[in-house]
Amino acid sequence: MRETKPPVTLGLDDETTFGGQVKPSYGSTDIVEFSGFNLWYGDKHVLKDISLGIRSNIVTAIMGPSGCGKSSLLRSINRINDLIPSCRTSGVVNVKGENIYGPDVDVYELRKRVGMVFQKPNPFPKSIYDNVAYGPRVHGAPQEELDKIVEESLRGAALWGEVSDRLREDAFSLSGGQQQRLCIARALAVEPDIILMDEPCSALDPIATSKIEGLMRQLSERYTVVLVTHNLQQAARVSEMTAFMYLGEVKEFGSTKDVFENPQNELTENYITGKFG
Amino acid sequence: MFKNGERRSGGRALVGRLVYALALLSVALSILSLVVILGDALADGLPYLTWRFITSFPSRFPSRAGILPALVGSVWLVAFTALFSFPLGVCAAVYLEEYAPKNRVTEFIQVNIANLAGVPSIVYGLLGLGLFVDTLSMGRSILAGALTMTLLILPVIIIASREALRSVPKLYREGAFALGATRWEVTRQIVLPEALPGILTGTIIALSRAIGEAAPMIAIAALVYVTFVPLSPLDRFTVLPIQIYNWVNLPRAEFRNLAAAGIIVLLVVLVAMNSVAIAIRYRHQRKAV
């Protein structure tokens, strides 16, 4: 097991800390590594001995039937599971080489590095501008840089053209698909390395879905995208790597092409061919 | 086949119509009794409701008696009660809803707050008399009265504020946490602004209750005759319900008319406060569309 680095706060620039621009010196291409990771909600063992490496700058899809633990796995990467009081974990999750479940980890800084987009678009009841500016403000971005950050983030989420002249309007005036892209812009605004997406299209119509899928491809050039989906076609369309989960275990993990065309595990094959799911 | 002379659904349809009639009757009865009470007060009191009545002190002579000290006393009382109960109630609700671990102790506190909301107001009056007036030697002052009223309405404010906080979607909180906000930032920047209209509405309704309460103030203020306007929170005072109560008990018939005029003043204050609550809620609803 790797040694745990000291706690990190904004402004420190140890070369292996969150927020540092320097990649970990022990050069692994896996930006997120689970090893022997377990998670319980109360007595319920939700994630069982997960070991999985997620490469940077690609889209990795996690699929599986409802209740298989795919969302819990995703939510372990930014420790938003911590919000559930009965949640316990064991094992290691390294993000950029650092065990995020180690002692003295700054979860707020972690969540700055690991953005998240939710199942249902959840803009704050504020203006479009204030939604995007929320994260940078929390992390102390200077006022004069906000305009630039907001514009770049909205451009990054392919929303700028549609909202540039109405930034002060209520975020709820946008359509569902636009709201979801706003949530992506909001996540981009704090300059994360990793973006977690928890079934981001499940509440959207097909046209909005295809826009978001295109966006995921585009985002993976600069960011690491981890996508949870129950939509097989979506996993096939947008991801380079695919993990198949079943009852809290990763049953298969490989390139999306291999997993779909030549699954090694019988369960994966059954799931992909629609025998259950 | 639907025109079969005998209606097979006759029995069930009859029950339906009966329930409808009963529901209508209940509404009619409540409105009727309200109209009767209001009409009675207006008929008795309106002729006596003059500017002189509002700006005069109580007097042995009905023609010279006015409600000024009671009105000012009520305003003082409500202002100080709001000052104490709002921050305390909101902070308690924020703790219970956002910070407290979900365990037996929290549950125990919850149940007890609900119970406190149901304790008769005279009990709070006696508590205030013992605690604030005597033990803390505040005397029969506005301060002692406001603190007593604070105890009385605190449970209501806490319960209403918790409802309001709970109605803020979990998705907003998660969204903010996922951006690296701390719990306090999430609470202050996302949750509280959303919950504020509900909190304010609950607070104003609780304060309206305070302004109409006579029982605890009889224990605290106890003054029958106040011939001065209270100028500081440490002054003695009387409030509208006590003044009204006093007049009703006097033998001369004109005093009953004065009491009715006092009731109208009290009702106007209550309606004004509730309108503010409704306005806040209405504005918020339009914003959410």
Helix/strand layout:
The complex is a heterodimer of chains A (277) and B (289).
Chain A (H helix, E strand, L loop, with lengths): L29 E12 L2 E12 L3 E5 L6 H8 L9 E9 L2 E2 L7 H7 E4 L10 H11 L4 H14 L3 H4 L12 H13 L5 E5 L7 H14 L4 E6 L2 H7 L2 E6 L2 E7 H6 L4 H7 L5
Parallel strand pairs in A: 3-8, 3-9, 6-7, 7-8
Antiparallel strand pairs in A: 1-2, 1-4, 4-5, 9-10
Chain B lengths: L9 H36 L5 H5 L12 H32 L4 H14 L3 H15 L6 H25 L3 H9 L4 H30 L2 H6 L19 H10 L3 H36 L1
Q: Please, could you describe this protein's structure?
A:
The complex is a heterodimer of chains A (277) and B (289). Chain A is α/β, with parallel strands linked by helices and 277 residues long. Chain A has one domain: Rossmann fold, CATH 3.40.50. The radius of gyration of chain A is 19 Å and the shape is globular. Chain B is an all-alpha fold and 289 residues long. Chain B has two domains: 39 residues; 237 residues, MetI-like fold (Orthogonal Bundle). Chain B is built from eleven helices and no strands. The radius of gyration of chain B is 24 Å and the shape is globular. Classes of the chains: A alpha/beta (277), B mainly alpha (289). At the A-B interface, helix 2, helix 3 and helix 6 of A face helix 7 and helix 8 of B.
Helix content of chain A: 25-40%
Which ranges of chain A are low-confidence, i.e. pLDDT below 50, for 5 or more consecutive residues?
Answer: 1-28
Name of the level-1 CATH class of the largest domain in chain B: Mainly Alpha
Question: Which oligomeric state applies?
Answer: heterodimer
Major sheet details of chain A? 6 strands, mixed
Distance between the termini of chain A: 36 Å
Going by CATH, the architecture of the largest domain in chain B would be: Orthogonal Bundle
As a percent range, the share of strand residues of chain A is 15-25%
Major protein interface: A-B, 28 and 22 residues
Would you count the extended β strands of chain B for me? Answer: 0
Strand content of chain B: under 5%
